[in-house]
Amino acid sequence: MTFSRTATALLAGLVALATPALAQEFTVTHAQGETTLPGVPQKVVSFDFAAIETLEAIGVNIAGLPGSNLPAHLEKYASDDYAKVGSLFEPDYEALAALEPDLIIVAGRSSTAYPELANLAPTVDLSNEWTNFYGSIKANAEIIGEIFDKEAEVAALIAETEAKVEASRAAAADAGKGLVVLTSGAEVTAYGPGSRFGFIHETLGVTPVIEDVEAATHGDSISFEFILETNPDLLFVIDRDAATGQGAAAAILDNELVGETTAWQNGDVVYIDPVRAYIVNGGLISFGIMADQVTEALSD
Fold first, then answer.
1. Which pTM value belongs to this model?
2. What Å distances lie between residue 104 and 35, 71, 96, 119, 178, CA to CA?
3. Which of 133, 78, 134, 122 is nearest to 96 (CA)?
């Protein structure tokens, strides 16, 4: 039996459509080295809430996540539809083994478990760098885009966040000098450029009231006298207790010394979303929301 050239080409096309495409192995570079993946992961576990926000934004489902400290805006993941695989600090290795994920994402609090997790499944570390916080957020999002073949979607998210950053920088240009503090219990700690919350200065454009906070404070908690001495035009507050339970920053700071500062007298005390800043601790989505919050405060 012979086939015409047209019939042969048609048959070849039908065979190609009927043959499943072979997964393409690829390697990604992350905070703890390189990880080779056999193809686009289908069953994903993330110990990083920032990564979960990004995955949700680009339409990627997860199979498992920590069972505690879940932010309210991620409440849907409390459902039994998602496996609970430990805490932000301690993976449940039995639950992970039963789930058999083909990708595990760690970051920050869970990054020390990377060696053990990497023995269970391909694992990537999307920890942020405090000295390059915003840059590392964008780089980690791009890694997610590479893994899931969602580069265009991630590029769009980055463009949206860049616009928010530019708006904040424009609003900050003539807004005066700011001080960033974290309250925890009755203690108050200051953060400057290059620190955990230094992005408010470095990326969002707020001029620091003091350049080297660590040298000035010796890395310890600060006094209310220190806040008065530096006398910021803007006071940015992250209430750790509000992120983990009952907040009390407003009551702690409402005293005679802080009350004499320019920021307090002018009503320029900005309470940064503590869950986004402290619990999620990175990611394009939360970073964009904090940028909007700073812009709104500076524009009032």
1. 0.88
2. 11, 20, 9, 11, 39
3. 122
